[in-house]
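JOB MANIFEST
job_type = single_chain_structure
chain_count = 1
residues = 331
[input]
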Amino acid sequence: MKRLFFMLCVVTGVALLLSCNTACGTEHAMSGSHEKTLCVVNWNVETFFDSVTDGNEYDEFKKSSEWGHDAYVERLKRLASVIRTLDADVFVMEELENEGVLFDVYNFLSAEWDSKKIYPYACFAKDEGSSIGCGVLSRFPLADMTVHSLDVRTETETMPSMRPLLQVTVEADGKMVQLLVSHWKSMLGGEEKTEVWRNWQESVLYEAFSRAGESSAVVSCGDFNRDVSVFANGSRADSVRLRSCLCNASVDVVSGWYNSNGVLVQPGSYYYDGWSRIDNFFAGGTARIVSCAPQTDGPWCDSETDIPLGYKIWNGKGYSDHLPVRCVVAY
């Protein structure tokens, strides 16, 4: 516990490793022998609250007689099991209540897993008063964590609560990789009505890629609550265009959902009246996506349909309403 506490306090960041043994679904290019690779998994773990009520939880958790310590421990066991199974260098999560959940996941992993595969580095970020935030577990040192928040006052409606962009530098094998973690505004209230706020968050992501430049390795992931097909088309079949609300500017980034011929990976990552691909991976600068795919070989989804098994408070069953997405990046 002391080790984790020390590392979390010192680094508060994200991380990634230099190798990955499991291939993913979409091949973009072969990794050259001089390049390093890292494997990142992104997963919206669906309203992962701890067992302590502090008032910011969603109503269904505060009102439920089924939610408590035992239910929380059972969810931790399942999450730790998925992390062990997917064995990524960096594990990125959306919808964690607080950094304490990261401590608890670490303790479950350290008690049950090979000590050489522990994630000693971690970070967490959310806006003050928000119910959920984004967290990262990593096997590599982290540095220069920055949180980018919006304060928009030019729209006709007041800006709703929105999660910030978490940016952190991963120090791996003498190289630096910038990781950008997003959880964009949900479609609650209507896709068209809420799109204006996702456009503003797209502007923040555009700025982060633009500042990094072409000589840096940049990887972005998260739950964007926007299907990859809604982004503007990029100059390549496997790219999309990030645009700014503030100026007539854009930057092209490679998407993990398309292969080099522009064919979409199957299935999506989220299912509601059909599949959508709202959990995205983007790469820019010197980073290249080698492979990327949702992970369907596990108890977190239906074995016949691949539809994710969302968590149900009333019976304690399920994992998340999103599939984890695994991406191998060369840099």
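[summary]
The chain has five helices and 16 strands.
Confidence is low (pLDDT under 50) at residues 1-25, 27-31.
exit_status = 0
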